[in-house]
Structures are given as structure tokens and as C-alpha cells.
């Protein structure tokens, strides 16, 4: 059998094409060079007979084969081979955070020994994973200087003793995740996990705060390497999120020196990723909010804010134990996630609210009242959501003995995380289009039921013609209601999500979990491209409304709107208020903006992110990209370089910046 035939038959094992080739538009020479790289690497790795092949054996082969490249300017060792990765059949766990605390305050060898105690399939896979990680550790150690060799010598066998050592461990296990195709993985609550080793080093006089800041900056610079390899849907969509701060079960607010150091280092790196995520509360000190606002001025899109006063209550209402609810992290963007206990895949698929309304409006039926129409909408939305969830549950998950070792209950049950071994096995759904539905329904109430400007038949005709010949009605339809502190808009939003929540509560997936959903999604500018016109004034193919936002409502009004939405009943899978803020507004009104942010927490928003950017800069950057090579913008749950975005995203960002400036 030729080597090319072996590659074709065995491509699942080392799938170079999925994470690498599709990101590059190769010319003929590039294609030829790429094929040579596959052939060379495949020969280096060798072929394992299919009967002997397991996930563990393939990871072991990969760890032996990857090339190691070291940044000599860094205090840390961190390496990825962008031409090689692991590809097991099925969907690999992603959009999650590994429980790094287990290798900071425990040892990897102990995790493996516990799993290997029984000689079954689970134990044998754990043994192979142990050998694979040791192989990579030994290979990295050979590349290190004396200090790095000391770190790697005890990397797998004992708890970390010092702050710099703990940071190196995070980087090592992080690189293994990326090398094995675990996309969009976060870092967890680092100010909490690293607190004791940091404080012990400070007390012992072997670490200063200034030195710690240098190390954190170096750590984050290391994580920012290999952005093209790590990016998912768009360049910059990486998901290395660091969680900071947070409410504690006794009602006090946790933060420490590391909270501040990570915020400062993130702003100083001036990179889209890694990003910071600050858990906020009305109990937090105003000084920490002041620092967070200062970091926003660095225009990296970080930190993102999550309101513990609302999020934790939603988790408790879901039935989650207080220990887990108060210790929540998030997935790659913002969806709450319990580290070390969850399989939860929180960005599995996107449900389109607007598509359901378009389906109804095309049926030609005349409705007697808004109440009748909303009832019809909710009935069809529930039906479509049930069908949608049935399809989602058909996904097959890849075996993952590596992540299973880090997850509660997997070893105890001798069950891989892909088979439901984790404590929590829920699915997470994101949604788009609800703002367009709400605006459409309010317009129907006003222009059809109250003013009698048109019939449902005429409405269907108008939308089919994409508003051509109906310019006056288009102008009326463009008035926004979602995001405004209006009783009808708020009521409609909650009625629709109530109907969806009733479906979610009754859903059980094949792993025994349920489903969570939210009102934020990265697909607002993707699904909409195939969507027809709607009665919110949106023409066919134009973007849906972005998260929880409004193009013509003041910041305070959007926050008030968000604070009156219902997040209970499994509606907590990401609900993000999204703002554009002019840099001059924060610069000239810093104290007022901090006061606004603290008041917004009391209003009860769920989560919040913002772009601190003006339209003039974005317009000039689009016209003269060479002048703005380092310009960073917030896209959805991640930040990216403006120049690397598709034109449609650039245009949308400019449009939103202009709208924000008109509001004032």
C-alpha cells in the first residue's frame, strides 16, 4: 500500500487538513508544499495497526512526533507544532476550561494512578495518556535552561511550589490541549487558583509584585502565540479566557493583587487574546471597577463583565449546588461553566427566532390580534425548537481520556467524558434574531392592528419584495423597540423565552443532561445572510441585532431593559449587553462612567461587553489598513484585529459606532 493510500485511509488519525489547510488559500506551489509536509510528517509518525489503535495510542504517537520550537525571549517554554494535530472520530470536547487546579495543587501522575488502578479500557487509556504526557514533558525539558529543567523535572509528580512554576504548568497542559484539537479552551479563575503560591512567594521574599507582573505579562504573551492555528470561526476566535474576581457564598466579594495584575497585564499585552472576564457584584469595590474601566481604554475588548448578583441566582434556581454556582467560570465566550465537573458543551448550535416568524408571516393568514399572533408564534417556535434539539442530540462525541482524567466522576464511574462520565452533561444553545422578532411584533401591533396601514397579505408581499416600493413603511419599521425600556418589548421578549424555557425543561439528552439557552450568539452576522427581510426594518441578508443592544437607545435604557428580562428556567447560556463607547466619553467622564457601571450592576444586567472605539478610527482603518495593523475590536465573544475581519463585519462595526455616537 502506498503512503498516499495510507494517508487517505488513515486521515482521521492525524488530520492536518481540518485545522490548518482550510484557513489558507494555497496557490499551486503552496498545495504541493503542503502535501510534502503531510507525507514527511506521516512517515515520521509511523502507522499503528487499526486493531491496536486507540485514542491514547494516537496521542502518544503525536507527542513523539511534534516539532518543538522555543521562544528564547520568554522565561517559559511553550510550543505548538502547527502542522500536526490529533483527529479522533466524533466531536472533540471544546469551548470549555480544563481544571488546571488539579495540576497546580495536585499532580498529574496522581490523576493517572487513580485511573490506572483497575486494568480495564479506561485504565489502559489512562496509562497511554500518562506515557504521552511524560514523553512530551521529557522532550520539553531537553530544550530548557536550568530553571526550566527544574520546573519540568517535578511537573507531573508533585504540586507546584512556586508562582512561576505554576504558570509554566498552565502553559504546558494548555499546549497539549491545543495540540490535540481541543478548540476554544479557557484558563479558569487564575487569581483564585494561583493565590496561595503567589502569596507564599511574596511572604518568603522570593517574589515581588513587580516581578509577578512581569511573569504574568510573559505568560500572556506566550498564550498569544500561534493565533492562526488556534483560531476557530474567525481569526482571533481563540477563547483563552481568564476569569477574575467573584462573589463568595458568605456574600463578600473576592479579589486580590493577582486580580489587578492580570487586568493590567492583559491591557499591556495589547493582544486580542488571551482575554479577561471580570465577575462583578454590587459588593465589589469601586476601585476595582475603576481599574477595569482603565483597562477598557486599552481597546482590546477586555474585560468582559459578568454580574454575579444575577448569574449565580440563575444557577441556583437551575438546581446547582451553592459550591458550584459560586465557583462558576465560563466557556470560551461567556456561557457559565463549572470547571472540573462539566461535559457541558455550551455553544453547540444556534437557534434562529426570526426564521420562525418569517415562516408564519408567509402563510397568508390574517390574525385578529397581537395576542393571537404571539400565541401562534410560540406554538411554532416550540415545535421548531423541539425538532432542533432532536437534531443536536444526534451529534456523536469523541473519546477523550485526557480530559476525563481532569473531570469529576469519570474515573469513579470508569466512564469517559464522552459517554456521560461527568457530573454535569448539559447542552448549551445560543440564539439569534429575538430582537428582530420583538421589533417586528411591535410594528405589527402599531401598523396593522392599530393604524391599519396594511394587511398581513400586504406585509408578506412587502417582505417578499424586500421593501421595494414600500420605502415609507420601511422608515416606520426601522424604529427600534427591543433594547428600549418599553413594557411591550420587555413583555414580548419574556413571553417568547418563557415558551422556549418550557421546552428546555422537558428536554433530556442522550447523556442524561438537559439544555440551556441564551440571547447571545456569534451567528448574528452569519445566519442572517440566508434570511429574508423581516418587519423590524431589516432587509434580506442584513445582520440581525447584536446580542442585547439597540442602535438608538441610550446606555442606561439598554441596561434597564436587560435588567427586566427573565434569566431563570434555563435561560442563562449567555445574555450579553453589547455597547459601543467612544474613547472620549470614558476619557472625559471617567468618574461618571464608573458610577454608571456600578449602577448598571444594581439594575440587574446579566453580562456586558463593549468596544471602546470611535467611527472615525474604524472608517480610516478600513480605507487605510496599513496605518492600523494593530487595531483591535470586539467582534462577539472575542476580540480580533480589525484588518483581519471580513468586510461585512467591518461595515457592521462602523455602522454600530456611528449609531452610538448619534445617541450621544
From TrEMBL:
Residue numbers bearing the Glycine radical modification: 637
Keywords in alphabetical order: Lyase, Organic radical
GO MF terms, alphabetically ordered: lyase activity
Domain PFL: 1-539
InterPro entries hit by this protein: Gly_radical, GRE, PFL_dom
Source superkingdom: Bacteria
GO CC annotations, alphabetized: cytosol
Range of residues in the leader sequence: none
Listed Pfam families: Gly_radical (PF01228), PFL-like (PF02901)
Protein name: PFL2/glycerol dehydratase family glycyl radical enzyme
Organism: [Clostridium] clostridioforme 90A8
Highest classification ranks of the organism: Bacteria, Bacillati, Bacillota, Clostridia, Lachnospirales
Amino acid at each position: 500500500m502506498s503512503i498516499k493510500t495510507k494517508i487517505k485511509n488513515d486521515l482521521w488519525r492525524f488530520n492536518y487538513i481540518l485545522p490548518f489547510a482550510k484557513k489558507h488559500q494555497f496557490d499551486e506551489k503552496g498545495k504541493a508544499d503542503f502535501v510534502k509536509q503531510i507525507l514527511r510528517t506521516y512517515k515520521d509518525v509511523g502507522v499503528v495497526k487499526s486493531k491496536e489503535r486507540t485514542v491514547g495510542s494516537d496521542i502518544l504517537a503525536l507527542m513523539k512526533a511534534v516539532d518543538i520550537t522555543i521562544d528564547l525571549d520568554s522565561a517559559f517554554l511553550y510550543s505548538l507544532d502547527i502542522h500536526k494535530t490529533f483527529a479522533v472520530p466524533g466531536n472533540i470536547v471544546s469551548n470549555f476550561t480544563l481544571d488546571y487546579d488539579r495540576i497546580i495543587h495536585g499532580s498529574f501522575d496522581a490523576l493517572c494512578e487513580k485511573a490506572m488502578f483497575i486494568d480495564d479500557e479506561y485504565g489502559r487509556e489512562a496509562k497511554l495518556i500518562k506515557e504521552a504526557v511524560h514523553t512530551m514533558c521529557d522532550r520539553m525539558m531537553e530544550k530548557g535552561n536550568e530553571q526550566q529543567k527544574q520546573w519540568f523535572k517535578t511537573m507531573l509528580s508533585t504540586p507546584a511550589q512556586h508562582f512561576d512554576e505554576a504558570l509554566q504548568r498552565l502553559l504546558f497542559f494548555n499546549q497539549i490541549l491545543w495540540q490535540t484539537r481541543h478548540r476554544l479552551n479557557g484558563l479558569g479563575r487564575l487569581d483564585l487558583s494561583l493565590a496561595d503560591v503567589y502569596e507564599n512567594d511574596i511572604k518568603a521574599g522570593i517574589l515581588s509584585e513587580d516581578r509577578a507582573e512581569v511573569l504574568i505579562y510573559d505568560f500572556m504573551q506566550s498564550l498569544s502565540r500561534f493565533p492562526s492555528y488556534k483560531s476557530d470561526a474567525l481569526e482571533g476566535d481563540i477563547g483563552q479566557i481568564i476569569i477574575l474576581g467573584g462573589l463568595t457564598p458568605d456574600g463578600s466579594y473576592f479579589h486580590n493583587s493577582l486580580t489587578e495584575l492580570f487586568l493590567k497585564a492583559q491591557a499591556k499585552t495589547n493582544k486580542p487574546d488571551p482575554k479577561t472576564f471580570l465577575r462583578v457584584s454590587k459588593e465589589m469595590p469601586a476601585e476595582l471597577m475603576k481599574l477595569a474601566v482603565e483597562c477598557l481604554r486599552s481597546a482590546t475588548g477586555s474585560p468582559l463583565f459578568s454580574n454575579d448578583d444575577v448569574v449565580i441566582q440563575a444557577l441556583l434556581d437551575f438546581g446547582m449546588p451553592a459550591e458550584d454556582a459560586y465557583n462558576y467560570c465560563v466557556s470560551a465566550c461567556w456561557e457559565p461553566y463549572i470547571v472540573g465537573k462539566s461535559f457541558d458543551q455550551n455553544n453547540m448550535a444556534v437557534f434562529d427566532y426570526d426564521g420562525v416568524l418569517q415562516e408564519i408571516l408567509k402563510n397568508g393568514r390574517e390574525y385578529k390580534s397581537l395576542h393571537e399572533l404571539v400565541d401562534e408564534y410560540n406554538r411554532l417556535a416550540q415545535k421548531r425548537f423541539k425538532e432542533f434539539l432532536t437534531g443536536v442530540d444526534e451529534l456523536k462525541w469523541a473519546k477523550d481520556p485526557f480530559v476525563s482524567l481532569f473531570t469529576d466522576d469519570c474515573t469513579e464511574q470508569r466512564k469517559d467524558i464522552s459517554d456521560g462520565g461527568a457530573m454535569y452533561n448539559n447542552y448549551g444553545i445560543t440564539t439569534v434574531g429575538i430582537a428582530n422578532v420583538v421589533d417586528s411584533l411591535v410594528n405589527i401591533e402599531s401598523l396593522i392592528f392599530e393604524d391599519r396601514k396594511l394587511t398581513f397579505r400586504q406585509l408578506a408581499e412587502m417582505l417578499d419584495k424586500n421593501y421595494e416600493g414600500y420605502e415609507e413603511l420601511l422608515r416606520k419599521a426601522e424604529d427600534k423597540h427591543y433594547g428600549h425600556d418599553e413594557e411591550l418589548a420587555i413583555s414580548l421578549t419574556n413571553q417568547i423565552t418563557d415558551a422556549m424555557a418550557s421546552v428546555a425543561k422537558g428536554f433530556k439528552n442522550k447523556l442524561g443532561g438537559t439544555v440551556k439557552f441564551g440571547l447571545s450568539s456569534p451567528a448574528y452576522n452569519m445566519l442572517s445572510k440566508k434570511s429574508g427581510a423581516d418587519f423590524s426594518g431589516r432587509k434580506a441578508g442584513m445582520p440581525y441585532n447584536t446580542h442585547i443592544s439597540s442602535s438608538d437607545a441610550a446606555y442606561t435604557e439598554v441596561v434597564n431593559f436587560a435588567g427586566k428580562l427573565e434569566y431563570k428556567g434555563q435561560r442563562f447560556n449567555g445574555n450579553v449587553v453589547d455597547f459601543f463607547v467612544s474613547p472620549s466619553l470614558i476619557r472625559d467622564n471617567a468618574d461618571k462612567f464608573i458610577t454608571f457601571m456600578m449602577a448598571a450592576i444594581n439594575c440587574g444586567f446579566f453580562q456586558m461587553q463593549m468596544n471602546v472605539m470611535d467611527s472615525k478610527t474604524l472608517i480610516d482603518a478600513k480605507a487605510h489598513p496599513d496605518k492600523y495593523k494593530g487595531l483591535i475590536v470586539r467582534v462577539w465573544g472575542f476580540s480580533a484585529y480589525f484588518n483581519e475581519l471580513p468586510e461585512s463585519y467591518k461595515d457592521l462595526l462602523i455602522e454600530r459606532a456611528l449609531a452610538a455616537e448619534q445617541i450621544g
